[in-house]
Amino acid sequence: MPVSSHNGSGRKLWVLGSIRMGKWRIAAVGTGNIFRGIHLPAWLANPEAEIVAVCDAYRAGAQKIADEHGIKDVYEDYRKVIARDDIDVINICTPNLYHSEVAIAALKAGKHVF
């Protein structure tokens, strides 16, 4: 029997057991080599995922990825991405020393962190 839930955003997510129905809405924070070479191809190959935003302190790099893949929203400040209530997952690909700062903020906002 389906169970209705939400991620704190007010958007309903339908789950059946542990299977989520509907696409995960992904935002990438950090769009350098690790994201471009490993994470981005994996998300693009996953029919259950949709990249809706990219964020990088180096905006031109994020903008290039957005333009190449039809991603509408580009940010330089990860806090603006995390504040969006329509994003389910924050994919962190920043330099290691920034991982905890972004992850803690995302978790406090009720996001899944990858």
UniProtKB/TrEMBL annotation:
<dbReference type="InterPro" id="IPR050463">
    <property type="entry name" value="Gfo/Idh/MocA_oxidrdct_glycsds"/>
</dbReference>
<dbReference type="InterPro" id="IPR036291">
    <property type="entry name" value="NAD(P)-bd_dom_sf"/>
</dbReference>
<dbReference type="GO" id="GO:0016491">
    <property type="term" value="F:oxidoreductase activity"/>
</dbReference>
<dbReference type="GO" id="GO:0000166">
    <property type="term" value="F:nucleotide binding"/>
</dbReference>
<dbReference type="Pfam" id="PF01408">
    <property type="entry name" value="GFO_IDH_MocA"/>
</dbReference>
<feature type="domain" description="Gfo/Idh/MocA-like oxidoreductase N-terminal">
    <location>
        <begin position="25"/>
        <end position="114"/>
    </location>
</feature>
<dbReference type="InterPro" id="IPR000683">
    <property type="entry name" value="Gfo/Idh/MocA-like_OxRdtase_N"/>
</dbReference>
<keyword id="KW-0560">Oxidoreductase</keyword>
<protein>
    <submittedName>
        <fullName>Gfo/Idh/MocA family oxidoreductase</fullName>
    </submittedName>
</protein>
